[in-house]
Amino acid sequence: MSRRLNRPQILAMCIVLTMPTSVICETKQQPIFDAHIHYSHDVWDAITPQDAIRRLRAAGIVRALVSSSSDEGTRKLYQADPELVIPELRPYRKRGTTDSWMHDKSIIPYLNQRLNSFRYVAIGEFHLQGEQANLPVVREVIKLASKHQLMLHVHSDVEAIELIYEQDPSAHILWAHAGFEDASTVVEMLDQHKNLWADLSFRWDIYTNNRFLPGWKTLLLTHPDRFMLGIDTYAPQRWLQIQSTMNWQRSLLKALPVHIAQAIAFENGNRVIYDRYMKLKRERD
Asked: Average pLDDT of each block of 10 consecutive residues along the chain (285 residues)?
């Protein structure tokens, strides 16, 4: 005898037409688009690309924006699972250059070479503070992103974001960690810049002990199309913390209405990042 499926049962089936066909929906986990993954050189010997992909998929991640130090890490993951990995190009050729990369002129020919060799959706994640956004190397990076129609994934304060928009008002920016700013500052920035999105990686502070930090629930409810999730595997030990981080993210999602949780968990990243990536691939291949 047939019976009607309720909403949780429908969600459990994961019938989402825009997902990769290889996703086998065997659990009730909400599928996740992760907008902040790194697979850098100091993790390669400990965790193979295949094991890294297994860990991501086990956590319910079906697509991920990946950048690495060096970019070879991103290529390794992409080759292991091109349906899951969406590549972005990081300026860092090794870890430990977050405070110095913006002074290294050799980064520009490096980025050009990679952009001419492979397909990416963004440049980043890179670190900036304030007036560093006006340095010559950073200005060239912003121009490269505009030339290749790429997003910028920026770990920065408010001032750096504003200076990027002064240089390129049409820039599309993913703001890492929502700048570690409070809700009032984030909402002001989102209202001012229509092409600004934020990932919530490392933002444990916004939802702890089943309570939202003041202003954050309202912000997520009123701007549900501007946020994405992220684990941020910036160091080897973070690969061992994927499940605990995902548990926190899922607790945050459960505290929100279903349609908003779906948008933040998957739909925003899929629309803003994956659709752009596929469009760029079609145009350039």
From this structure: 34 38 51 98 96 98 98 98 98 93 97 97 98 98 98 98 98 98 98 98 96 98 98 96 96 98 98 98 88
Under 8 Å CB-to-CB from 241, ≥6 apart: which residues?
231
Specify the pTM. Answer: 0.90
Q: List the domain boundaries for the chain.
A: 28-284
- Kindly report the CATH class assigned to 28-284: alpha beta
